[in-house]
Design goal:
The chain is an alpha+beta fold and about 130 residues long. The protein contains two helices and seven strands. The strands form two sheets. A four-stranded antiparallel β-sheet has the order 2-1-7-6, with no helix packed on it. The relative contact order is 0.18.
Length: about 130
């Protein structure tokens, strides 16, 4: 009986599949540049920011009142908290969040900054 695939061909096929798998995983991971930042306070979305434009901003409600006293900076597609009235200022010390899936959390002020990507609808592909 004749073999369909020779051992050397099988090894070559496995190598090609392994390389393609690595390329796909690296191309679709959450290390891509984030485009949108969703900022939530106590679970409710209060802001959605495009990270492609550099700016500084504060969170305000519809009446113009700051909620809470926090300042943010967007620079080069990254975002960070530059000022916060929370004790310890851990959210300020977290520095820039720069990749899709990145998160900045201020527990005392109940604020979460989550970076998302507009091109990918899903967090993961299984």
């Amino acid at each position: 009986m004749k073999r369909l695939i020779k051992p050397k061909e099988a090894v070559l096929i496995l190598i090609v599949l392994a390389v393609l798998t690595v390329i796909i995983l690296l191309g679709n991971n959450s290390k891509g540049a984030a485009e949108i930042t969703v900022i939530t306070e106590t679970g409710a979305q209060v802001y959605s920011i495009d990270l492609r434009a550099d700016r500084r901003f504060v969170l305000e409600d519809l009446t113009g009142t700051r909620i809470p006293d926090m300042e943010f900076e967007v620079s080069g597609g990254d975002i960070r908290v530059t000022k916060s009235d929370c004790p310890g200022g851990d959210c300020v010390h977290q520095g820039f969040a720069s990749h899709t899936g990145g998160v900045i959390v201020c527990v005392p002020n109940r604020v979460t900054v989550r970076l998302t990507d507009t091109e990918n609808e899903y967090d993961a592909v299984v």
